[in-house]
């Protein structure tokens, strides 16, 4: 690898750069001077790069500028980060980054770029026309310019933490090393949990209607949305529309925590020495983490279904419901419907991830000229579309799971296995029978996404989660 000048030479080079940027010769570089200097040097986002340069980490005196020593300290830290990133991209460790290594790095993120796009990225940094980037070219290009890297994509494109539509089968979001070191990851998870609680409470009537129709709707009774709502209100009043919501909110925290911890452990086992996971590996790790979390908290899923469907006065509360199930049906009842539930993770997580990554790739390729930030509407649209597609694919298994959880509490209902229940539904009602209750399920998606996003952003502010 070329380069490696001595410390004295580096300080001289940085000193010359400082003098060039210090246009008013007051011995300090402020944001205005840094912005002007970046514009002269070309490339990157001058505003963002200037803000990164004059930052609390770089400026030891909170006076809005950097003196020579502070400027050198900032550049030293910046070079260290750049060198680490250079080595992570230089996969064959030959001291140069070529087109194939740029493509591999993006592919590891789940972002497909063409050979032409990779060459365009490389050409913007290649000064000597060799179609490779050595350390000096890399350093000089990014030393002051804003560095859009892996962390930007990870930060801006979170959706399973941000959006809660009542299902917890999505592949967990990735957190950057910076977020893990600063503790921002747990604050984001807490913000996501609170957002999920508010979102589920706000859409609880539609969720209860969905479960009610999954279990009770059939060809013979022609139960529809208005009929279902009328029936529930007549039986228990308006407040009965929130039955089962308490435990639905209660299970968010343990499920999120278990899934996150399991995902990190499984990811570490799969990754080995790799820097990042490929999309297929993320799907495997996310599915296994989801299965682990569901296995541990599944009794709460059964209780949620029973409490949602309960008649007035049937149970005194959560503990009474659990005790009655245990006394009458035994401990195995707490895992009724477990198999279709776990099998449902595969189509849901797979399609949700595939659709989301496809939409993300398309946006990044066409519109991410200066930033990886998609904006609120794009993020909400991509997350909503991908989650909805995942729900459509896994819905028949979700319906079978709910009926298996509920069938012991319904008088005269046959106690069927997963395959037996599938055959029974198909023979009695056809394929449409596997999608009973999907209308209220779709109706709650947009309000659930909107509520969860607004609450998430407010919780981030309250917890002091820094935004870029």
Structure description:
This protein has 468 residues and is mainly α. The protein has a domain at 190-463: Mitochondrial carrier domain (Mitochondrial carrier fold), CATH 1.50.40.10. The chain has 21 helices and 4 strands. The strands form 2 sheets. Strands 1-2 form a two-stranded antiparallel sheet. A two-stranded antiparallel sheet has the order 3-4. α1 (7-21) packs across α4, α5 (99-108) packs across α6 (115-123) and α15 (279-309) packs across α17. The longest helix is centred in the middle third of the chain and has 31 residues, at 279-309. The chain is elongated. The two termini are 33 Å apart. Mean pLDDT is 79; it is low at 1-5, 42-62 and 146-150.
The CATH class designation of the domain at 190-463 is Mainly Alpha
End-to-end Cα distance, whole Å, is 33 Å
In which order are the strands of the major sheet placed?
1-2
Instruction: Give the class from helix and strand content and strand pairing.
Output: mainly alpha
Multimeric organization: single chain
Topology as a string of helices (H) and strands (E): HEHHEHEHHEHHHHHHHHHHHHHHH
Region (Disordered): 37-64
Subcellular location: Mitochondrion inner membrane
Family: Belongs to the mitochondrial carrier (TC 2.A.29) family.
Protein name: Mitochondrial adenyl nucleotide antiporter SLC25A23
């Amino acid at each position: 690898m070329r380069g490696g000048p001595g410390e004295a030479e580096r300080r001289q080079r940085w000193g010359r750069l400082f003098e060039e940027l210090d246009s008013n010769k007051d011995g300090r570089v402020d944001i205005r001077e840094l912005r002007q200097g970046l514009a002269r040097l070309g490339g990157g986002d001058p505003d963002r790069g200037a803000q990164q340069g004059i930052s609390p980490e770089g400026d030891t005196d909170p006076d809005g500028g950097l003196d020579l020593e502070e400027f050198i300290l900032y550049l030293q830290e910046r070079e260290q980060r750049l060198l680490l990133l250079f080595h992570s991209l230089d996969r064959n460790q030959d001291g140069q980054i070529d087109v194939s290594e740029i493509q591999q790095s993006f592919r590891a993120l789940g972002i497909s770029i063409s050979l032409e796009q990779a060459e365009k990225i490389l050409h913007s940094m290649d000064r000597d026309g060799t179609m490779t980037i050595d350390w000096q070219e890399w350093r000089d290009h990014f030393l002051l310019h804003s560095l859009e890297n892996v962390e930007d994509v990870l930060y801006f494109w979170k959706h399973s933490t941000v959006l809660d539509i009542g299902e917890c089968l999505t592949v967990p979001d990735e957190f950057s090393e910076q977020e893990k070191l600063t503790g921002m990851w747990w604050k984001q998870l807490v913000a996501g949990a609170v957002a999920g609680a508010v979102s589920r409470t706000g859409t609880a009537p539609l969720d209860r209607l969905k479960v009610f129709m999954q279990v009770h709707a059939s060809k013979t009774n022609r139960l529809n949305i208005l009929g279902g709502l009328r029936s529930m209100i007549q039986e228990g009043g308006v407040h009965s529309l929130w039955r089962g919501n308490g435990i639905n909110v209660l299970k968010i925290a343990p499920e999120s925590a278990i899934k996150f911890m399991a995902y990190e452990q499984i990811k570490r086992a799969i990754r080995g020495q790799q820097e990042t996971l490929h999309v297929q590996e993320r799907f495997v790790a996310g599915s296994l983490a989801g299965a682990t979390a569901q296995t541990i908290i599944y009794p709460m899923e059964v209780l949620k279904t029973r409490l949602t469907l309960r008649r007035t006065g049937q149970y005194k509360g959560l503990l009474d419901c659990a005790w009655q199930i245990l006394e009458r049906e035994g401990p195995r009842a707490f895992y009724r419907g477990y198999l279709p539930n776990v099998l449902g993770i595969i189509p849901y997580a797979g399609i949700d991830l595939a659709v989301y990554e496809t939409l993300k790739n398309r946006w990044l390729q066409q519109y991410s000229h200066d930033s990886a930030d998609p904006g609120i509407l794009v993020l909400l649209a991509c997350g909503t579309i991908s989650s909805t597609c995942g729900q459509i694919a896994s819905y028949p298994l979700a319906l079978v799971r709910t009926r298996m959880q509920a069938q012991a509490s319904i008088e005269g209902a046959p106690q069927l296995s997963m395959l037996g229940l599938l055959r029974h539904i198909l023979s009695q009602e056809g394929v449409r029978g596997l999608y009973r209750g999907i209308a209220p399920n779709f109706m709650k998606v947009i309000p659930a996404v909107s509520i969860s996003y607004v609450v998430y952003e407010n919780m981030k502010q309250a917890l002091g989660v820094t935004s870029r």
